[in-house]
Amino acid sequence: MKKFVPFLIAAALVLSACGVQQTHTDKDAAAAITAAEAANKKAKKAEFEWRDTGKIIKKAKELAKNGEFDTAVKKANKAKKQADMALMQAEAAKKVRPRI
């Protein structure tokens, strides 16, 4: 039993250190969402907006409104990455030529 108590205390310390803590603030979420919206606007202007990017941005806004800033930043970053890839796709499409 004496050997079990230190193990139990160590396990409790490890588990308490693994608790969920918010690392992003509302300002971080707002900045990430703004960046995603700007990138998506460029993709839309190039007529290469991806189907789900707007939905992801909308979800990020809802999460930020509910105080889930970490998840909102993660979603906004995903949306920005998709918008950036859509812009790369638009650039690649400009270089496409028929094969003869």
Topology at a glance:
Elements: H1 4-17, H2 26-45, H3 53-65, H4 69-94
Helix pairs in contact: 2-3, 2-4, 3-4
How are helices and strands ordered from N to C?
HHHH
Helix content: over 70%
Overall number of domains: 1
Major pleated sheet = none
* Structural class assignment: mainly alpha
Overall outline: elongated
- Strands, count: 0
Q: Tell me the span between the first and last alpha carbons.
A: 81 Å
Query: What is the overall pLDDT average?
Result: 87
Strand content: under 5%
Tell me what you see in this structure.
With 100 residues, the protein is an all-alpha fold. The chain has one domain (22-94). The protein has helices at 4-17, 26-45, 53-65, 69-94.
Structure, briefly:
This protein is mainly α.
Question: Keywords for this structure?
Answer:
100 residues, mainly alpha, 73% helix, 0% strand
